[in-house]
Amino acid sequence: MTDNESPARGPAPAGTQRLMPYVTVDDSGRAIDFYRDVLGAEVLTRIDGPDGDVIHAELRIGDSVLQLGAPMPDLGLIGPPAQGNAFTLTYWVEDPDTVFARAVAAGATPVSQVGDAFSGDRMGVFRCPFGLRWCVARHDRDVPVEEIRAAALAWTAEGDD
Questions:
Q1: Which SUPFAM superfamilies match (predicted)?
Q2: Whole-structure pTM value
Q3: Cα 43 from Cα 99, distance rounded (Å)
Q4: Do residues 16 and 8 touch, judged by C-beta distance below 8 A?
């Protein structure tokens, strides 16, 4: 092995999952602090640009790694829209009620309060101050997919009045 070779080659770097989201947020340094304080994120890598914006960071949240950075419109990296998101980041935790409350206390906006879902999970959804939609959840019981399907169809039909 040469000095340029990695001792552990593979499809993903050692210690990371194979699907690693990269998100772009305004005020990325404050976002890192929020994710550390609310979700217990550990900063693995942080590269600040000359203007102080975070060019690239990697955060370990639970057993996963989330990459993030400041918007770079020239590269097509823009922050989330003012309303909504095309995705939700779900984080499985032991106590979703406490994490949700901590997020709201730190400036997150509740989207749906923590409650027991027909999927067998206890979950709540918030939008962090940096525009990302997060779900904090705990899996409490296994539910047959047929039961989940029927409940999901009934739930969506309620909105068709």
A1: Glyoxalase/Bleomycin resistance protein/Dihydroxybiphenyl dioxygenase (SSF54593)
A2: 0.86
A3: 19
A4: no
